[in-house]
Amino acid sequence: MHPLFLFIPNFQSYGQEHILWLAAGVVSTVFWIWLGRRQTTDLGERRIGLIQSLIPAGLWIILSLYMAFFESPVDLNLVLPFHISYFMNLLLPIMLWRRSFFLFEITYYMVMGGCIWSLLTPALEHGFPHYLNFRFFLVHMGLIQSILYAIFVYGFRPTWQSFGRAFLWTNIYFVFVLGINYLLGTNFMYLSKKPSNPSLLDLFGEWPWYIIGAEFLCLMMFTLVMLPFAFDNKTEEKLA
Domain extents for the chain? Predict the structure, then answer.
């Protein structure tokens, strides 16, 4: 480990640092939505959306390049963008710039379900300002911020049709990542083995049974985050 990080304390869930990160995420999200809603043109809204989404995406790229070139051995699980949160982190700037309802509806469920859970139960070892700590919170808060921007500024709403399409594309991505893990010997999305820390996947036994259990958990999570819009009669704003 770089000497700069030798004396960084371990991360403590629901300690002062954790609470400050969550509070900063709320303030940042409110600010960007407020700024977006002040715009009077479609181009202005898209510019603000793009800028706020490029901050976590750019940070992820810079830190991944740093780890790839200056750390040895290189951990491919940390520098390649195949964990779904890091993949969506690179995808959401496109969604916001193009004002794409299709990209919104297939990312809404994983972001609002998976990222909120990740922020409430972070799988982190190092405290601030370790770069993995910084990257984790900026990326996951940025994902939620981008989705909420699309909801409150663009007026996007997920539908039950979105639910089915999102579940289909999530499973297509799962199959793709299984192939990546097989070729590279990685463990993206924990599809090769369960995480070392305790998780709900422990309820379903070992590989491959816990993957089947993860499908049921995914459906439950998708249903939960669909509930706020389950009886929303607002017409979808399908642009781009």
Answer: 13-229
